[in-house]
Write a structure and sequence with these properties.
Distance between the termini of chain B: 34 Å
Number of helices of chain B: 15
Structural class of chain A: alpha/beta
Oligomer: heterodimer
Number of strands of chain A: 10
Radius of gyration of chain B: 35 Å
Largest sheet of chain B: 10 strands, mixed
Number of helices of chain A: 7
Helix content of chain B: 40-55%
Strand order of the largest sheet of chain A: 6-7-8-3-9-10
């Protein structure tokens, strides 16, 4: 599904250049559940950014279903993120101005789904994560667990092929974190590919594949 | 605008920061209002200037014997009459020496008295004659007197007219005892674009001292004869029997004052040249006007006229003025004032708009992460730009709506100060739109910056 070849990312800070990741070769197949672990500053987030096309690599190639997406325009990259990827963040990143329902509807509006269908589908997704009673609440009125479930519903809005999760349980109490993880496992069983960055060794063990990053290099892989 | 989640974000965002939003709107509204009024004023001043300078009046050269307005205050008797000349229709032939002049006309202010006051005049003249003193006419030297008795002794001739023609006059007397008008040559009506409602114009041949014709303004006609049929009426004024042969039509322009309330008669003094006659004292304010179609030739034509009058009457005998030059100077002054007003208004608008731009930029920069997440969810640069730009547009729109009211008030104030006449609502709208466009351009920047926030900001931990 995704093939990274000799990926390198350097940040130009004027006089000095900082290499965030280099020499990354990675193959992600459909149906994978990949956990990325590593200490802070090791380059995990940079790798996730590149995988999610939030950032373009300085060198190397990124093939998505055999297409090199690094050369695509902003508009085309946005469309890929919108239709094929779903993002889950550590701090949920819901829009405080929008209700849970509207948060889930938003990515569908970018996909030009008609308003009525957006609403119906968003309601279904929220019901799936057990939030049918909280649909019209603003994020500020919801607990961390509820917010993260809303964020998962949002990530699923356009039926993505790949879910990219950055420390999805990092801001949650253990029980809520496990709940989120169970949801991800369930999605994976429905053939959704999952890439998750985590600090948590125990959670990482639940993934099908684990890679460990240190100083910008993949130093180990376990399946 | 499609009703979608973007819209909710924009509106709730504005609402959540209501005090800040209101301040931005009010500040911008003041700038837009002032600039809108400033633009409208500038457009109006251009329009007024163009229409004013294109009017016939400013294609004229005026020749008069008055040096300055101060001269006019000097009693006529005190003036050194030997140094002065009386302008008559004959002087219009100056135009033949100046090819740029299409035609000229004479205009001498005069007053008409109806019979009632004339009777007093007859009585006083009779008394004056019997006592052999009193009126200024007695100071006229004897050798000139012979001539003036033939043609000019007004009281005598008038008295004869009154005595010989009373039956043929109308039994209806004019309702006014005195009104003002001008002795003019026929070209005057062309020059001032005056047309007739009824009757006909006159030629100089229609005039004599005892029988003369008159064209009156429409309002004056109604005032003089309340039954509404002034045309063809005859009355006596001074030594002369007048017949009203034409009534002017309203012009719909600033000349209507002329067309309404003045009376015009042919200049009777065309062939008379008597520098010391007392009757001619009323002719001190006579002016000759020469029309020059091509206003760029005004200076050249004025020089040619100067040559004619210097050759005829000597140096400095007449004053030649080009009203266009004075009007131009006035317009230039107005233009500078308007430019200054517009500059200040635009400076205000600029400051307000830059402030809005700055605050919106600050908001965008605080929302780096939000923009990153929006991009992660699939928002393109274009979409982010639209999101932020719509917010700025909305602030600009609210400000413009308030600005319309502000500019209206300002326009009213300026109207009273500038004598430009009313500033049309259309001009105000054009002004507001111009100010709004400036605002919009200045607020493009934050939206542009927001759209450039990298998507990777989504992953940033705070």
């Amino acid at each position: 599904m995704i093939t990274l070849k000799a990926i390198e990312k350097t940040y130009d800070l004027g006089q000095t250049k900082i290499s965030a990741v280099s020499g990354i070769d990675l193959q992600i197949n459909r149906g994978d559940f990949l956990a990325i672990t590593g200490p802070s500053g090791s380059g995990k987030s940079t790798l996730l950014n590149i995988l999610g096309i939030l950032d373009n690599p300085t060198k190397g190639s990124y093939l998505l279903e055999d297409y090199d997406i690094t050369m695509l325009s902003d508009k085309d990259q946005s469309r890929i993120r919108n239709k094929h990827f779903g993002f889950i963040f550590q701090s949920f990143n819901l829009f405080s101005e929008l209700s849970a329902l509207e948060n889930v509807m938003l990515p569908m509006s970018y996909a030009k789904v008609p308003s009525k269908i957006r609403r119906e589908r968003a309601a279904e997704l929220l019901a799936d994560v057990g939030l049918q009673q909280r649909m019209h609440h603003l994020p500020s009125m919801m607990s961390g667990g509820e917010q993260q479930r809303t964020a998962i519903a949002r990530a699923l809005a356009n039926q993505p092929d790949l879910i990219l999760a950055d420390e999805p349980t990092g801001n949650l109490p253990t029980d809520k974190g496990e709940e989120v993880l169970r949801t991800l496992e369930m999605l994976n069983k429905r053939d959704v590919t999952i890439v998750m960055v985590t600090h948590n060794e125990e959670q990482a063990r639940k993934a099908k594949r684990r890679i460990h990053i240190q100083d910008g290099h993949i130093v180990g892989e376990r399946t | 605008m499609i009703r979608n989640e973007d819209r909710s974000i924009i509106f709730r965002n504005l609402k959540n920061r209501l005090p800040e939003t209101l301040l931005l709107v009010v500040g911008l509204a003041l700038g837009i209002g002032a600039s809108g009024a400033g633009f409208a004023l500038a457009l109006k001043s251009i329009e007024v200037s163009n229409s004013l300078l294109s009017s016939q009046q400013y294609r004229e050269i005026t020749v008069s014997t008055r040096q300055t307005t101060a001269d006019m205050d000097v009693p006529v008797m005190v003036m050194d009459q030997d140094q002065s000349i009386i302008l008559t229709s004959r002087d219009l032939q100056a135009a033949t020496d100046a090819p740029d002049i299409s035609y000229g006309y004479i205009k001498a202010p005069t007053t008409f008295h109806s019979t009632a006051s004339f009777m007093e005049q007859v009585v006083s003249t009779t008394r004056g004659k019997s006592s052999g003193s009193g009126s200024s006419q007695s100071s006229v030297p004897e050798e000139e007197r012979t001539f003036s008795q033939q043609q000019l002794n007004p009281a005598q001739q008038g008295a004869q007219t009154l005595l010989t023609l009373p039956q043929s006059l109308d039994d209806v007397e004019p309702a006014l005892s005195q009104w003002s008008g001008y002795m003019v040559s026929p070209e005057f009506f062309d020059a001032w674009s005056l047309h007739l409602q009824q009757g006909s114009f006159f030629t100089l041949q229609d005039a004599s001292l005892t029988n003369n014709v008159m064209v009156v303004g429409s309002t004056l006609a109604r005032t003089l004869y309340e039954d509404g049929s002034a045309l063809g009426r005859r009355f006596i004024s001074g030594p002369t029997v007048y017949e009203i042969i034409g009534i002017l039509e309203p012009t719909g322009t600033s000349f209507d004052e002329m067309a309404f309330s003045r009376a015009f008669m042919p200049d009777v003094l065309q062939d008379i040249h008597l520098p010391n006659s007392s009757m001619l004292q009323s002719r001190w304010n006579t002016s000759l006007s020469f029309m020059v179609e091509d206003f760029t030739a005004l200076d050249r034509a004025a020089d040619q006229l100067q040559t004619y009058f210097t050759n005829t009457y000597g140096a400095n005998s007449v004053v030649i003025t080009i009203p266009r030059q004075e009007a131009q100077a006035l317009q230039d002054r107005n233009a500078r004032i308007v430019t200054m007003i517009l500059f200040l208004a635009l400076a205000g608008l600029f400051i307000a708009a830059v402030n809005v731009s700055n605050i919106l930029l600050g908001r965008a920069m605080r929302k780096q992460k939000t923009v990153g997440v929006l991009k992660a969810l699939g928002a393109s640069k274009q979409r982010i730009f639209n999101l932020f730009f719509r917010e700025a547009l909305l602030i600009g729109l609210y400000a413009s709506l308030i600005g319309v009211a502000i500019s209206y008030v300002l326009a009213q104030l300026m109207q009273r100060t500038t004598h430009f006449g009313s500033i049309e609502p259309l001009l105000l709208i054009v002004g507001i739109v111009a100010a709004w466009i400036i605002t919009t351009i200045l607020t493009l920047f934050p939206a542009l910056q927001a759209s450039k926030i990298p998507a990777a900001q989504a992953m940033r931990t705070e």
